[in-house]
Design a protein that fits this description.
The protein is mainly alpha-helical. Helices cover 69% and strands 3% of the residues.
């Protein structure tokens, strides 16, 4: 896997630890009650604490984690911060997804279809953790195909920021069904090769993701959240 800072360079130890931790977070393997402690991770990976500490600090500086007296946890965003992130995603993701249409060849489509089919099976059996990982695989398929890599990296980071949102919503089978509908629609748009349709479907998918979160928030907290930006 290439270094995130230099795609042509083999990652060093700190970068490998960073990529591994970030993948765990994206796949839902780190929950809201989990604590990431440098010496525990170092012992697990059979490495020194320093590269682990540096990787954790990088994730903290990127807004994915926050520090506590006993390690690092997923960052808890305020409702306004979540709203801001969704607004940015609605601005960026439809355009980026449309750009990826140029690279939507057979391998790209097969990768998306595998993830989509497996996600449908995971949801049907109520395995929301597997569903979450497969949703991340599906998302990575189109993000990896965006030709503007700076834009793709920015989108990935904003998606990382709302990990607690996914952990909150994807346990709900109704939400999983809504997400699957969006995934199918986007796959079909890529299959058609129509970039405008991809843009339209991704816009709807982003807005639906925001709406699902706000509904869960309202149900849990009894408060009316603000809508994402228009």
């Amino acid at each position: 896997m290439p270094s995130p800072a230099n795609p042509g360079k083999k990652p060093n130890l700190r970068e490998r630890v960073y990529l591994m931790l970030r993948e765990r977070i994206q796949m839902g393997l780190v929950g809201t009650d989990d604590r990431l402690v440098d010496h525990d991770i170092a012992r697990e990976l059979h490495v020194s604490r320093m590269p682990v500490r540096e990787a954790l600090m990088q994730l903290k500086s990127e807004g994915v984690l926050e520090g506590t007296a006993r390690g690092f946890i997923l960052r808890r965003h305020s409702l306004q911060q979540i709203n801001d992130i969704f607004e940015i995603r609605i601005l960026l993701e439809p355009h980026a997804a449309a750009l990826a249409t140029a690279n939507a060849g057979p391998a790209f489509l097969a990768r998306m279809k595998r993830a989509l089919d497996a996600a449908e099976q995971a949801s049907a059996r109520g395995d929301w953790e597997a569903f979450m990982r497969l949703n991340a695989d599906y998302r990575a398929a189109w993000i990896d195909s965006v030709p503007n890599r700076a834009m793709a990296d920015m989108i990935s980071r904003f998606i990382d920021h709302v990990q607690t949102v996914r952990l909150m919503t994807m346990q709900d089978p109704t939400v999983r069904g809504i997400i699957l509908d969006g995934m199918r629609g986007l796959y079909e748009a890529y299959l058609s090769g129509n970039a405008d349709l991809v843009r339209e479907r991704m816009t709807a998918h982003c807005r639906t993701a925001a709406a699902c979160y706000y509904q869960c928030y309202q149900r849990l907290c009894g408060a009316q959240p603000p809508p994402p930006g228009n």
